[in-house]
Amino acid sequence: MTNEKKVFDFLENAKSFYLATVEGDQPRVRVYGAQLLFEDKLYLMSFARTAATDQLAANPKAEFCAFKGQTLRVECQLVEDKRQEVKDAMLAHMPVLKALIGEQGENAVMWEVKNATARFYKMSELVEEFKF
Predict the structure, then answer these.
(1) CA geometry: angle at 60 spanning 58 and 65, to 5°?
(2) What is the pLDDT of residue 29?
(3) Per residue in 34-92, pLDDT tens?
(4) Which of 111, 28, 9 lies closest to 66, judged by CA?
(5) Selection from 26, 122, 21, 131 nearest residue 74 by Cα
(6) For the chain, what is the radius of gyration of the CA atoms?
(7) Which phi and psi angles does 50 have, rounded to 5°?
(8) How far apart, in whole angstroms, are the C-alpha atoms of residue 57 and residue 51?
(9) Under a CB-based contact definition with an 8 Å cutoff, are residues 72 and 119 in contact?
(10) Which CATH number covers residue 119?
């Protein structure tokens, strides 16, 4: 199992995760629930025309976390992938999103997770750490 798949599976089981971005000197956090494993790469989806999308365009450094029996924290850079194939894969993975992002995913932005360090914790104890 790849490291990307391990993180993807955890996010799938957790159902939701929290994404932190930076706006100037202020952190911003919001809840998300759309992730994708495509071509062995991990992707997160945001809606187009949102503050989060603007913040990531200005500064791709981000962190996300989820909890399901243990905590996952991932420091990373989120880099936009504009390929239609990625949006198509997202819609195939989560067809419920069509009503929100359009038939072709025109209202979605797909972010590839890059330069990531993932850490799994049980309570405050680091259980596992890896990069991808």
Answers:
(1) 130
(2) 98
(3) 999 999 999 999 999 999 999 999 999 999 999 999 999 999 999 999 999 999 999 99
(4) 9
(5) 131
(6) 14
(7) -125, 165
(8) 10
(9) yes
(10) 2.30.110.10
3-state class (DSSP) for residue 54: helix
**Count of structural domains, the chain:** 1
What is the average pLDDT score of the chain?
Answer: 97
Residue 78 is part of which domain span?
Answer: 3-131
Alpha carbons 52 and 76: distance in angstroms, whole number: 15
User: What token pair was written down for 60?
Assistant: 């791709």
Instruction: Give the separation between CA 16 and CA 52, rounded to whole angstroms.
Output: 16
- Tokens 């993932």 sit on residue: 118
What is residue 95's predicted lDDT score, i.e. its pLDDT?
97
Phi/psi of residue 59, nearest 5 degrees: -150, 105
pTM: 0.95
Give the mean model confidence (pLDDT) for residues 18-29: 96
Please tell me the distance from the alpha carbon of residue 101 to that of residue 113, in angstroms, as a whole number: 20
Between CA 65 and CA 19 the distance in angstroms is 7
Beta strand 108-122 pairing with 125-131: antiparallel
